[in-house]
Batch of 2 targets.
Target 1
Amino acid sequence: MAVKQFLHSKDLKALALSLPGALFIIFFLFIPLATIVVYSFWRTESYTMIADWNLNNYLTILTTKTYLTFLFRSLSMSLAVSFISLIYSWPVAYYIAKYGGRYRLILTMLTAAPFFTGILLRVTAMQQILGPIGVVNMFLSNIGLKPLHLLMYSHYATGLGLIYLWIPFMVLAIYLSLLTFDFKLLDAAMINGASPLRAFWEVTLPLNWIGTCIGLALVFIPTFAATITPKFLGGVNGALYGNILAHQFGSTGTWALGSAMGVLMFTISSLFVFIVFKTVNLNRSGYTGKIAGE
Amino acid sequence: MDTNKFLFFFKDMQTSSYALQLVEVEKQFGDVRAVDNVSLEVKKGEFFALLGPSGSGKTTLLRIIAGLESAGKGSVFIGGKNVTKNPPYARGIGMVFQDFLLFPHKTVGENIAFPLKMKKMSATHQQEQLSWVLDLVRMKGYEDRFPNQLSGGQKQRVALARGLVARPDILLLDEPLANLDRELRKEMEVEMRRFQAEIDIPFVYVTHNQEEALTLSNRIAVMKDGHFEQVGDKLELYDEPATAFVASFLGLNNTISGEVLRQENDFSFIDWKGIELKIPTPNGIKPGDRIAYYLRSEKMHINPHGKSNPVDGSITLTAVLRDIIFKGQYSDYFVILDNDEEMVISDVPDIESLKIGGKVDVSWLPSSGFSFAADGEE
């Protein structure tokens, strides 16, 4: 009787509906992550994993100056790239949402157009623009100016490349948020004494803060894990944490250390997302739906 | 040249006695002249209604006053100052919107105090003003709620409080009751009159609802196609509509049109689809012209056939009673006249002797209606 009831209950339906998502997370996130976590406490010797549990990998990456330098570099790079993307994306998304009219969808797709070509091609294209014989420096030397060394195989080049790569996510996140934003609220703000800038600060930004946070997370995480971009645009001295991490799984074959680096990367990314979303107060986000479980 | 300068100076001087003055304001949207050469003065302490159908330009005019729309031509004076070039946040106005437009991420208290915060008023002063306005709109104790936790009427009160808290020179209201249900609308009408009387801030109120305009305001401007058809005291508009449009818009619900057959003294006789009818003669009308005659249903009487006791000079026509809509104090009677035209009469309910399908007498005084030259108006 109880079984029959369960088979017809809403619980079962909910369970069945959640299954594909749950399986996906278990197989593609949880199991690989658990494996990495386990490996990070092991040891590699002559390209084989040896299961003697220890904390040496973590001690190494947290006390060796080189690893810490790369970690700090990547962290600064990710913060800078996220921040610049944020500043740049707001006007773009705002313009599309407010004045795009019937071209809104096309304009939004256009910001994502470079994605159609794949990361490697995009980064190579950036190289063609920024490199020593790239468009910018060719132009500068042709008109008799010195080439910009700043743009050649440097962290600035990497930063520019990363911004270019991930900015569509930020634009899209803010744009989607602005789609549900009632621009008439700005009329109300202005009537009540707010200048346009003040109205943005008091009304537009707080009401689109969740979307902005999603954008920040979507830019920060891939930037923090970047390997291809610094490799192609950063040059010999441009390696970031991701490159060093990739290295452990390549020629050096120190998988256990690499796993520990991966766990640290995951932890820092999670921490970033956690801190960013700590700033969200659902009551103050204009979110009007019922909070689950309330 | 000098005279012009002097006149302009004089005009400037005059404005100070008005809360709001519009001088020859115009606004063009493409081919459409949304506001066409409108001039207006609203006195301090006045409750003024802009009444018109949708598309008449009343909301555009309100937005021009607010600075949300720029005036193509003309000037706007608020509190004696020329604010034509000022942005909305530098005009000293308050505004209540049709869909309230409360900030969903701010509490009731924060919403209401917003204009004070923008004015960089001190916290104690803000608290004072907030407390005063919460008392006025009877929303004490709701300060910490969010707008989505309020009912429609409460949102309306908060919107009003936000509009009034900084004691603006003028409060603009854009169909503020349109989103409320009937019960609440009646209640808010009474409340709004009370607020307005208590605080003495002039209200400029946009509505398409003639009943609302008549209930609330002291003066009314009836707007059509971007211009004012008539501006005046509400009773004046009600008793002496200047144009056919004003007459039909202010609830004169029986429209009769026909050709003038002959004239006698102040009256004309028209052919209304086979019925000869006596009506007051509009200015400059000769036999052969077409005219429209508007008759208010409550100025008419209905009686069972043969039992009418009309006042001297009344017209009495026989008809068949088609339907009765009971409204409480009175009933609306729908009748079909001998020429197959329909009329509505508002009279005291008489269930005893008035039966649907029965023959009735309909009577009215010709002078109780208004006639205009028919210029293609419906």
Note: Chain B has nine helices and 20 strands.
Target 2
Amino acid sequence: MIWIIVKKQLLVFWRNPQQLLLLLGLPIILIAILGASLGGLMEGGPVSIDAKVAFIEHGNEQTQIDQFLNEVENSKLPKDAITAINNSTEKMTPITILKEDILGSDELKNIIDLEIIKPREKANVLNNKEYAAVIEVPENFTYQTLKSIYLKKGTTGEIQVYKNEGNQLGSTIVTGILQEYQEQLSFSTFAGKQGITEEALQVDPNAIIGETVTINQKNPVTAKNYYAVGMAVMNVLFIASTIGSIAFLEKRRHVFNRVILADVSRWVYFIGIFISGTIVGFFHLSIVYGVSWVLFGLSWPNPLGFFVVTLGLAVSVGGLSVLLTAICFRLNSEMITNFFGSIIVTVFAFLGGSFFPIGDLSKAIQVVGNYTPNGAALTAYLAILRGDGISAVLDQFAFLIMFAAVLVTIAAISFPKRGQIV
Amino acid sequence: MLELIDLSKKFKQLYAVKNLNMFIEKGEIVGLLGPNGAGKSTAISMLSSLVDPTTGDVRFHNKSILKNPSPIRKIIGMVPQEIALYTDLSAEENLRFFGRIYRLKGAELKQKIDEILELIGLTDRRKDIVKKFSGGMKRRLNIGVALLHNPELIIMDEPTVGIDPQSRNYILETVKRLNEEKQMTVIYTSHYMEEVEFLCDRIYIMDQGNLIASGTKDEIKRILSAEKTIVIKADRLNDIFIESLRQDPTISSVTVEEKKVTIIVPKEINIFPAVLKLAEEAKLELNSVDIKTPTLEDVFLHLTGRALRD
């Protein structure tokens, strides 16, 4: 009997092409618009920006190295130590590493357009808004750094960065790279002072670049992928209000009374609504992701994880559907479905991060957002996209099922009892 | 077969139905008559087990249905006042869905759908979507759905509202046929007096939640045996004339329509000279003054002082 109710519900959906088009077309259109307009902000591969960076170097690095080695040679250090420093200094060229191995690396070439500028042109470059950042290496930087690392005298030199506030993205990237670079230099100094091995005294360009362009060494999430998921998890909530509206129409037209008079338990109808919401929600998500795969190349590295999260979210939609239906029946008004569709979904979408990664703004909002069905599902989907296994999404899955269970319980309590329905 | 005992339903402070007593015997057509808001639909909801009464009982074959409504639900076919159908589905899909929830399936369901479509004259339109149907066709399908499981008792709540005369006749003939050929018991509510007069063996008249009269058609009309109904027609009625009629102590009821005044007076009184005199005083030119055979409408008028469709 439940299946008869579900089948009819699916048929009613199928016979409303305009409604179907709206439910399926809207997320696809939103994914395309948001993905295209905000794509550059979140690309996980090479960032599609062109940051022009000026590099001003005071003094010659080789001269400073020679000066340092000369001092070492004339020092009272043991012969073995002098040989070791000579050997390792061949690899320790901090400015060359920064210029060629880091800023000039293949990974950053597409992002950073590095120009070597003479110190006398500094004022002109600083006034030129085309540059995202100006990097200035002070006099004796290499000499001081080597002295600090190997002879434990003084501190490493400090590189000056001038940021162009008009090109925040480019300047932030450059600053981030240099901060990392400076930290590694400082670590080398610390390690040298603590007698740590020679390998530790090297600046690792790959570590610096890697930290900048990917997040925690996981698969990057592109803007289109992010918004495909964000819009899908938001729009699937509209299924609940649509099913609530259809159910209320059944009540208003006395079709529900006919079902009851056929001696069908109202709980059969109730479960039918829950299952319909779950099935339609699951198909809705599958279709939106299917289209996203075809149009935007959204693919899932872990299909089982994807299935688990989709199922969890679909069950939540089922719970929401039956709750909205119960409240509509109880209040004898469709007001709640309209309120849910226009206000609550928007609030959920905002908190859950469907419009933008709100968790970046506030940890508290991120926590609250994870207690919305769309927010929990979004977190889980993103984890799967980044390459996490199914164990990483079990918490969200459990939350979605619990969320549905609570809604179904509230719905069952609110659903009008026998003899109360007119 | 079915008995309503002191049935009342109170919504907040208002009684929709108050102390209603009714009985329905197998195979009869019972009319439930009354204007909008009289309490007919609430009474039907209670007797069909959809709504619990505030007080009173509904007994089916001498057993209360309040705690166990299943026995009556199995034999009831309900035709609500609203078009209780899925308008986005075809006629056949509607019948299939409701047939399935009435636990029909396979060949039996298919045969029943064909039979019902034939009965309601929609065989040629079986694949058409209901929202494209005329009002009359929707009403016929609305009835057809209620007949799918061969109900013993069919309850029809104003089944002819808002349809053309041809569809209305079709529905009335169908109801009559179902009763005569299949001995189906029918409870028929309407505020169309002529429908109730045509169909019903016995009639209950309700007004403002109360039962104000009951009996066979003849029994009810005999309420007016001591009175007669006179219809006065004029091109332009005026207030002086109407007021004069209302102040005449021998006239028990005055109902004014556009160019017509209906009055009820005791049978032994010759009211003609008085009416002519009042018309002359009001400078009114009368077109006609007729004595009418009493109808149920006149009974209702007599009992409530209002017309049924007010």
Note: Chain A has a mean pLDDT of 80.
